[in-house]
């Protein structure tokens, strides 16, 4: 018994009577709602990765800048285009900057919080997903926080900068409703992209090597939304409105703010749908995730 | 020589193993091809003959960019992450002990990888692109051959740059930052973003003179028949010049780096 007391004391919850094993420290053991537990675990894991990143500060600084610059290049390409033309698809540079800024910021937020989920396929393949399953923490939170990369803030900064530029330069007749649209677009846009990340991860349970497919929707979607809908073929616009609801990230609400015509002759009120659409889109994404996790079979040894 | 051929073939087979990943990559390249093609159509609608390309040449530029993205590793990747990891963990000591040249070994492997990516990731997006849009495809087989040679030279230049990036890990240990910088430069100066002929003034001149233009701009211009007669030799000389220069620098850095190698661990 003598040698166990040391361990008990370390655990800080000594149960003097009968030498039973130490109880879990209070704060770990408290039962919380599953969602709260998930968010808390996400925070803890993200903090751990933050500290690990800070071990290589020079590299971190370079990668934040790199992330910023990588996304800025998309905008540089647009600027270069506008050095040759005044309008693209009938839209001026500030108008396109608004579309770009909203999409870039929304995607940046989703990427910062859930971007690591595209590593799920790799985890299934090398069997490290099993480790996550035995921990008393929601798997979604663990996968999302895995290798949390603060450098992705670079992307958010860049989106915010372009958005700021657009809002300053554009001559919009602001109404309270239009002003409220801006934060609404960013949040629901981030939610739409977030659902895409979750759906993509769910798909990787089925096709582990196909992580790239989701890039077509996430990064590809972001690139698509940086340009006005008038540039693209009708069928493509239909697809990203009714199948994958990307058009609700920025096109429809931003066109309302700009007072421009909607694609496909959609009615006015669709501009206010993004929060609803984002919420609805999380349903299949979440169900897909559950189904994927339930169907998961370890690769074995 | 036989050894390096085996290494190249091995890498070809290694990348060929992941068929789902290849199919997924082809899908993504194709989606991006469509998105970018529409933006180019909008741009060339406003300004026909922009940058010396007509609409179908501009569209060919887009789809060639997607087809060569992996082959010429314009966004990095291929081998440098692996080499950086070997340097970081100290496994590089084993590589240096082998009776093979470090640079040639990785070059052979990268050529094998590029050959697979040209076939596996290049052909399908190009086919889809030419079905969906009116592309300017060369009619003579000679131009196709000239294009392939230009792509090969582009791959060597790309390798030489990424080899230097990887060697930086000898000093920094975590090569992620440098790799990303190189990736950015590759994206911007290869012409992946927009044809370099659209870059204004001095920026355009500088961009066309930098090694990265060998990765996409030069091969595409060869493809579009922009180098008639002896001009073609000049284009090759430009690519080969950068390839040799960068490989030599790589060799020097390698000899400095290996002299200071201290294997980590016990």
UniProtKB/TrEMBL annotation, chain A:
The chain crosses the membrane at residues 60-85, 97-115, 156-174, 180-203, 236-257, 269-289. It holds the Pfam family ABC2_membrane_6. Keywords: Membrane, Transmembrane, Transmembrane helix. This is Transporter. It comes from Streptomyces gelaticus. The lineage of its organism: Bacteria, Bacillati, Actinomycetota, Actinomycetes, Kitasatosporales.
UniProtKB/TrEMBL annotation, chain B:
The chain crosses the membrane at residues 21-41, 61-79, 118-137, 143-170, 182-203, 233-250. Keywords: Membrane, Transmembrane, Transmembrane helix. The keyword NAD does not apply. The keyword S-adenosyl-L-methionine does not apply. It comes from the Bacteria. InterPro entries: ABC-2_transporter-like (IPR010390). PANTHER family: INTEGRAL MEMBRANE PROTEIN, SLR1174 PROTEIN-RELATED. This is ABC transporter permease.
């Amino acid at each position: 018994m003598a040698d166990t007391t040391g361990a008990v004391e370390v655990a800080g919850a000594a149960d003097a009577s009968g030498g039973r094993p130490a109880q879990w420290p209070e704060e770990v053991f408290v039962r919380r709602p599953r969602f709260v537990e998930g968010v808390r675990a996400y925070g803890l894991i993200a903090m751990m990765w933050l500290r690990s990143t800070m071990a290589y500060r020079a590299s971190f600084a370079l990668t934040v800048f790199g992330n910023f610059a990588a996304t800025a290049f998309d905008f540089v390409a647009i600027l270069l285009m506008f050095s040759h033309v005044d309008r693209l698809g009938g839209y001026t540079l500030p108008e396109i900057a608004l579309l770009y800024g909203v999409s870039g910021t929304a995607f940046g937020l989703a990427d910062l919080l859930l971007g690591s989920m595209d590593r799920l396929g790799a985890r299934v393949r090398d069997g490290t997903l099993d480790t996550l399953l035995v921990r008393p923490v929601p798997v979604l939170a663990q996968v999302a926080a895995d290798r949390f990369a603060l450098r992705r803030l670079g992307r958010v900064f860049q989106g915010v900068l372009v958005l700021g530029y657009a809002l300053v330069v554009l001559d919009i007749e602001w109404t309270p409703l239009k002003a409220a649209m801006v934060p609404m677009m960013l949040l629901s846009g981030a939610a739409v992209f977030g659902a895409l990340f979750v759906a993509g991860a769910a798909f990787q349970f089925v096709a582990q090597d196909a992580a790239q497919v989701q890039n077509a929707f996430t990064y590809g979607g972001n690139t698509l939304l940086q340009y006005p809908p008038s540039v693209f073929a009708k069928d493509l616009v239909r697809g990203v409105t009714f199948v994958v609801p990307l058009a609700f990230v920025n096109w429809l609400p931003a066109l309302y703010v700009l007072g421009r015509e909607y694609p496909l002759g959609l009615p006015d009120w669709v501009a206010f749908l993004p929060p609803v659409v984002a919420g609805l889109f999380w349903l299949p994404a979440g169900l897909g995730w559950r189904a994927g996790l339930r169907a998961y079979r370890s690769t074995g040894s | 020589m036989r050894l390096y051929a085996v290494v190249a073939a091995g890498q070809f087979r290694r990348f060929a193993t992941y068929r789902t990943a290849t199919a997924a990559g082809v899908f993504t390249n194709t989606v991006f091809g469509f998105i970018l093609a529409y933006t180019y159509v909008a741009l060339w609608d406003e300004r026909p003959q922009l940058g010396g390309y007509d609409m179908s040449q501009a569209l060919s530029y887009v789809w060639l960019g997607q087809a060569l993205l992996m082959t010429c590793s314009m966004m990095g990747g291929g081998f440098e992450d692996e080499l950086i990891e070997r340097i970081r963990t100290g496994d590089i000591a084993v590589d240096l002990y082998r009776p093979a040249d470090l640079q040639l070994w990785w070059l052979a492997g990268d050529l094998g990888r590029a050959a697979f990516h040209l076939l596996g990731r290049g052909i399908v997006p190009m086919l889809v692109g030419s079905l969906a849009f009116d592309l300017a495809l060369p009619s003579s087989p000679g131009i196709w051959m000239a294009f392939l040679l230009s792509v090969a030279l582009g791959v060597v230049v790309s390798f030489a740059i990424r080899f230097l990036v990887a060697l930086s890990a000898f000093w920094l240990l975590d090569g992620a930052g440098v790799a990303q910088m190189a990736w950015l430069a590759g994206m911007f100066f290869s012409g992946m973003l927009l044809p370099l002929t659209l870059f204004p003034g001095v920026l355009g001149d500088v961009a066309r003179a930098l090694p990265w233009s060998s990765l996409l701009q030069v091969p595409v211009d060869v493809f579009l028949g922009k180098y008639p007669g002896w001009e073609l030799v000049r284009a090759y000389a430009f690519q080969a010049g950068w390839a040799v220069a960068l490989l030599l620098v790589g060799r020097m850095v390698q000899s400095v780096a290996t002299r200071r190698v201290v294997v980590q661990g016990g």
